[in-house]
Amino acid sequence: MYPWGNARGGTPWGGVGSWETQKSPEEEESERTLNAIRDAFKNDDRFTCERPLGDIHNGAAMIIKEEYTVEGQPRVRRFVVKAGITGAHHSVRKETRYLNSLALAEHIPRIISFQDHPLMNLGVPLFVSEYMEHGTLNRFQERLRRADQILPNRILWSIFLCLIRACIGMAWPPPGPDVGPEQTRSGDPTTLAHNDMHDENLVFGDLDSSDHSLVPVLKLIDFGESVELPAGADESRLNENNVNQHDRVLNLEAYRLDRYSRRNRGTDKNILDVGVNMSQIIAQRGEVFPNGARALIRDPNVHPSLDPDLRLLVQRCVAVDPLNRPTLDELMELINNSYFNRPASHYGAAGEGDGLESDETIRKIVSTYILSGDTS
Questions:
Q1: CA dist 10 to 52, 301, 323, Å?
Q2: Residue 348 predicted with pLDDT over 50
């Protein structure tokens, strides 16, 4: 924080300093790229450039609305154009490559291709992907905090399920032929680590008739920072103090299962990131780092009504020793056994009437804080 205001030029009394109009080279280039995107679409009445999306460190992005007809009926869809700027060309190319390889994963946004491409001559790397209508996990949490709304276990399990499915998709890119829930398969998992999994890169889509009939699908976006990590668990730099405070206090080594051994540093990193995100949303806190997440999920006063099975599984995901974290194979078995889809009746009276775990309460929370929430 600057002593005379903030980095964007605001003054302590709410006025505007003369330096506010100064922009960084990255901001200026991003603005030029966004204007070029607007110009590319301006002569085609099908498209409307609605607003820029996200920060600029991995490129410039714009939400586009397309209006078209199907058998004489008007239709509307929105998509995102993401284009590279200097310093981000590589990340946009990399993100395009990963999104194409994960094109059939249900919990990863899909690349969109269309004919009569108005962006052919933009001159920078770019891709077009589906737009998720209902905002980020961060926005959802902000609304919950303002309303002092406790999250039901069943919503937390649903979010957890989406994060695990996305990790399984990264480890075993679905072969298709259709988009569907990610599944573990034969062969070793890839070593892909998303490496930027936080609540601004997790976005809500729509309800459907499968696993997302009560809580919308949550998808993982922004693969610009993704990396391939060498195979094999790296235990050489474990902080013994952290191991003692978390893993050994909870006796997490006892939950290791020998029959699940397919893992690598990429999958272990993704599972850790899932656990950190789950700890954060369970505690209704802002951004936390692994040690903070471990302290939160060990605290019995954080979400006292939290399902103990959910608490333990998240505690295992944030284990200091990667070998104490669950593998994707184990998590897949739990998914297949409906561990992540517990009915309202599992929670007794809380699942009845207008109890916290009832379908009625979940629909109300989803409608109020996700489907009807402002995503601007």
A1: 22, 39, 48
A2: yes
- Indicate left, alpha or beta for 347 from its phi (over 0: left) and psi (-120 to 50: alpha): alpha
Chain segment 48-80, per-residue pLDDT in tens: 999 998 765 678 999 999 999 999 999 999 999
- 137-371 belongs to CATH 3.30.70.20: no
Please say whether the beta carbons of 127 and 111 come within 8 A: yes
Calpha distance 329→86 (Å, rounded): 40
Which is nearest to 118 in space by CA: 62, 58, 52, 70? 62
Q: Which CATH class is domain 20-130?
A: alpha beta
**Taking the mean position of all CA atoms in its chain, how far away is CA 244?**
30
- The Cα 240–Cα 320 span in angstroms is 9
How far is C-alpha 131 from the geometric centre of its chain's CA atoms?
Answer: 13
Q: How confident is the model at residue 17 (pLDDT cuts 50, 70, 90)?
A: very low
Distances (CA, A) of 231 to 20, 193, 270: 48, 11, 14
Residues near 231 by Cβ (< 8 Å), separated by ≥ 6?
A: 188, 191, 264, 265
| Structure tokens that stand for 314 in this block | 């998240």
User: Domain segments of the chain: what residues?
Assistant: 20-130, 137-371
